[in-house]
Task: structure prediction
Amino acid sequence: MDLYNVYQNNYLIVAVFLLLGILLPVGALTAGRLLRPNRPTKEKATTYESGIEPFQQSWIQFNVRYYLFALLFVIFDVETVFLYPWAVAYDELGLFALIEMAIFVLLLTLGLVYAWKKKVLKWN
Amino acid sequence: MELETIRSYDWGIMAPELIILGAATILSLADLLMPKKASRRYLAIFAFLGVACALVALFMQLDNGVISILADTYRFDSFSKAFKLLFLIGTGLILLLAFDDRKGERDEYRGEFYYLLLTALLGAMMMASSADMITLFVGLELLSLSSYIMAGLRKRDRQSNEAAFKYVVNGGISTAITLFGMSYIFGLTGETNLYAIQNALGDPTILQNQFLLVFAFLITFVGLSFKIATVPFQMWAPDVYHGAPIPVTAFLSVVSKAAGFVIMIRFLLVTFIAAPGVAEKPLLQEVQPYLAILAGASMIIGNLIALRQRNIKRMFAYSSIAQAGYILVPFAVISGLMFEAVWFYLLAYLFMNIGVFAIIQLVTAKSGSTDISSFAGLYRRSPWIAVCMTIFVLSLAGFPATAGFIGKFGIFMSALSTGAHYWLAGIMIATTVVSYFYYFNVIGQMFFRSEEEAGKVSIPGGVLTVTAVCVISTLVLGILPHTALEFFYNQFDLSQFFTPTK
Amino acid sequence: MTGEMIAFFILALVAICGGVFMIHSENVVHMVVSLIFTFLSIAGIYILLSAEFVAVVQVLIYSGAITIIMLFGIMLTKHDPKSEKRIAKSRILAVGTGVVAFFIIMFLAINKLSFKQQDVELYVHNVKKIGIELYSKYVIPFELTSILLLVALIGAVVLAKKDESEEMNEHE
Result:
């Protein structure tokens, strides 16, 4: 049971850090709000664009290519997730695990070749 | 794990799956290396050869008993071979159909279709030959994911886009529901092996949670009903069937649907066979009324809405909802005749439905529209095609001397054999009568309407083979059903299904 | 009340609030941000259950990758927040009743939950245990997963890539 407490206490520290991380900016901004004078004018509310009058929406449409990269990223991200426990447990698994992972990586390499051949990776 | 233990398993038993996987891999490489403008048509032949090889491999293994690899994550038994046979035959026929689907032949993504079809088949086969929750689920996802993409392959076609989008959204929701139900089953028992779960459900501490167990059963069932397109997850079917290319529609309505029944029967029956319900009765008996209501609702909704359809693909989509309702009947009443009734009906349904879609593909390619009027006067233009279509439609309607009749009769008898399900049998008869109206509407168009457009419908080789195979099988199964049933009795051993290996 | 309970309640509350805000928000970016809160607090719940590896995967895949996908999806599409239709009151009521009924059923079912003896030492070598199970017993589903990922990759390329002819037109 002792080990379990150690495990939990470790995460208690993480929780404290997380809490501090959230509370500090919130606290600082609230304090700023309380201390500063509040005299809003219309010019103050506009976006600051180095002196140029802001035009159009701040959201622009991205090129669809970015999206494809993001999709590929997710798929290879999932692959890494499988690699990690494999690496940790490798000592106890032996040769067979190596073959397994080789097949797994090979099949995903096929995917990479596919993306390459379809010119997804090219930027023109 | 030692290499010896790994070697001790009989990996050769996975030959059909490995052949399909190998064929898919080679196809994808070939597609990538081929010149860009070359026609991908002949890849279909290669894919067909792969399926044929897998079928041969499966036939060579028929005499094996139960073989299990790695704690049933792969399991070869009578159930898996009976249904893998259906998948392989169905996919083979669909590949022949796709070979002659000239529409969109020059599409950029034509090659992808063939290997996605094979990976979908691989998913379905793994669903049939596993007794482990994780493999079943991964197989289900492989099938679903491949089907989503196949439905949307025609990127320039708005309907195809709509079909893919609706399919993926509905599919995602249903997968979430299935997983939710499965998570309760896993949470209560702590096992993923179906036989271990079956065993664990006899534990008295777990038995105190019967209510949750019934709930888990129903949620999983509802989630899985997406694949077979029955109530409450039926509404995607018309849009997706309508929008997808015809070979894909045929695949979804036959192979994918059969796979849905397979996972339902395997997963729900094996795990819950011995589980007690909330009251005195066993769980499977307790949930029967709910399942019967869902089956009845599918039959009624499918058949009634089909009456109003003018589009031939939509009509057969609703018809397939109704047909799935019929097949659900033996499962809902859980009689001893269930396995043979479901298997035989799926076999009959495979031939008649693929036949129907083969002819729809021919006729609509000629007329350019999927409206029912493109069938007008078909008898005068191409009498043989009209006769074949009539046979398929009569079989779907359940007329004597066709496979559909024998199948429906088997289902009907299984509904009566358990007693207290007369109302379900009654709904089945009533909705069958309703279905005559729209099925005969198709026949009426072909024989009694004057033709709107002249011109004989020519029939290319692939579709000709498919139609011939389907017509012969529909008639043979209708007149001599024993050929198939005896094969089934010889091969199928119920004890293999419910008891674990060793 | 133990510290574990308190932590659980806070995390569960954040998870649920995140979900509710996501449905309620009109601004898509706010939706994604509230979803991140849900994902993160679910990761926290996994840690409470001693499933460290699953928690890390949750952060890596969901809070990381999936969120990025969603943000890209937002950046790709045009949307003005005013165009949405109001949802009918009756529909909200129906959904609300459904949610409440579901909650009551689940609560009744879970209330008297009983388990067999449970593993208590999940936190010791968590990742290693998963690795050993996955690569010795679940080899077949694992290899099947690689095919699944491959299909997903092909699907992503096929469905999301612009056609080459369209690109040509753009260049001209």
